[in-house]
Amino acid sequence: MPFGLVSAWKKRRRSKSHDQIDPWTYKPVEYWQLEDQNPSTKRHHGSSVFTLREMEEATCAFTEDNFLGKGGFGRVYRGILRSGEVVAIKKMELPTCKEAEGEREFRVEVDILSRLSHPNLVSLIGYCADGKRRFLVYEFMHNGNLQDNLNGIREAKMDWPSRLKVALGAARGLAYLHSSSAVGIPIVHRDFKSTNILLSANFEAKISDFGLAKLMPEGQEMYATTRVLGTFGYFDPEYTSTGKLTLQSDVYAFGVVLLELLTGRRAVDLNQGPTDQNLVLQVRHILNDRKKLHKVIDPEMSRSLYTMESIAMFANLASRCVRIESSERPSMADCVTELQLIFCTNSKGLGMAMHTFRMV
Ligand SMILES: Nc1ncnc2c1ncn2[C@@H]1O[C@H](COP(=O)(O)OP(=O)(O)OP(=O)(O)O)[C@@H](O)[C@H]1O
Ligand SMILES: [Mg+2]
Asked: E strands within the chain?
């Protein structure tokens, strides 16, 4: 599919695949059935199994007051568990024809996320599977998703040091997934985007939504598929044109998020004219042009909190992440190193101590 066409669309597109037969990701169905209704039962690396009743109690029967947001899988509600813990509960709500896809995503999410532990990945607290109903229970992230903080409902716009901190946190999360240290096998997230970066009370970034993730066993540098999964605006052009998924597909999506952080614009903005809808196509040609770079900087950012040097370094990194040839993109480990340097450059340029922004 040509890149221009892909990027003109906003919503995720899914179709049939060979994924069902992949033994790495999908467990036998018996594994997911609830034979033990004890709410305190711990399974599978610490994920709790909840009953439907507990889900209803936690959210006051899914009242609108607890509604947090809606995505392709269903609605998300704030909830309080019997233990007093505040959580986010994602309720699967799909038309019958999409239930099988939803079930697949549910299983991958539980299977992968309950094996992972990293400060920049959202924690899965547990799940509920009751008949055909499915719920995922996550740690609650007080500041919602990154996109809403950049150009959505939230009033206070993030300053440059906070954006650098988010970029670095997200880079660390992805680098962890791509390394073998997570589950012994590199993992491609495949749906990395600004709504899947959640922010804690002190604006630490945590990556969420692993339902489309793919394990890449040793020696398998790419995975060929007939269906292209992910979200429009973030698709690696090489993946969309060849169907070959690599770790570098996440690097492309990461580059798009860097551009959102820099410009405060959306990855795809259907309110713009046909040639200006795609952020990468809109700004790519000026990212390495210091004279024109000021045109793309988010005007909502406080001028006193960024140096042009750090902006130029950041724009250069973003431009390399979104290169069409995946082999020319940096690795996520390189991105972490560069972003640390960019953060230091900005702090030094402004004469600020690193700890001002609670960096780790
Ligand atoms: N753990 C959480 N804590 C707080 N809010 C959350 C949490 N998880 C999700 N949300 C909120 O719920 C919204 C919907 O999330 P969801 O992941 O279902 O959709 P999405 O990421 O926006 O879109 P898509 O389904 O296309 O990936 C998010 O944008 C976020 O604001
Ligand atoms: Mg999401």
From this structure: 42-43, 47-49, 67-70, 74-80, 86-92, 124-130, 133-139, 187-188, 197-199, 205-207, 214-215, 223-224, 244-245
Q: What is the pLDDT of residues 99-143, one digit of tens each?
A: 888 999 899 889 888 889 999 999 999 999 999 899 999 999 999
Judged by DSSP in three states, 289 sits in: coil
pTM of the model: 0.86
pLDDT tens string 237-255: 988 888 888 999 999 999 9
What's the chain's length in residues? 360
Would you call 321 helix, strand, or coil by DSSP? helix
At 112, list the tokens: 């992968």
Through-space distance between the first and last CA atoms of the chain, rounded to whole angstroms: 41
Can you tell me the distance from the alpha carbon of 127 to that of 52, in angstroms, rounded to the nearest whole number?
10
Q: How many other C-beta atoms are found inside a 10 Å radius of the C-beta of residue 130?
A: 15
Res 148 pLDDT > 80 = yes
Distance CA 123, CA 138 (A): 6
Q: Which residue spans of the chain are classified as CATH 1.10.510.10? A: 146-359
Question: Which one, of 72, 15, 2, 11, lies nearest residue 239 by Cα?
Answer: 2
Could you confirm whether domain 22-34+45-139 is CATH 3.10.180.10? no
Report strand pairing: 124-130 vs 47-49: parallel
Choose which residue among 14, 75, 76, 204 to substitute to test ligand 1 binding: the one with the highest number of ligand atoms within 8 A of its C-beta: 76
pLDDT score at 25: 36
Q: Minimum mean pLDDT among 24-33, 126-135, 231-240: which range?
A: 24-33
- Is 90 assigned to a binding site? no
Question: Which atom of ligand 1 is nearest to 147's Cα?
Answer: 29
Q: Whose CA is nearest to atom 20 of ligand 1?
A: 71
Residue 335 near residue 321, CB atoms below 8 Å: yes
CA of 71 to the centre of ligand 2 (A): 6
CATH 3.30.1490.20, applies to 146-359: no
Cα of 145 vs centre of ligand 2, distance in Å, is 8
All CATH 3.30.200.20 domain ranges in the chain, comma separated: 22-34+45-139
* Nearest protein CA to atom 24 of ligand 1, as residue: 71
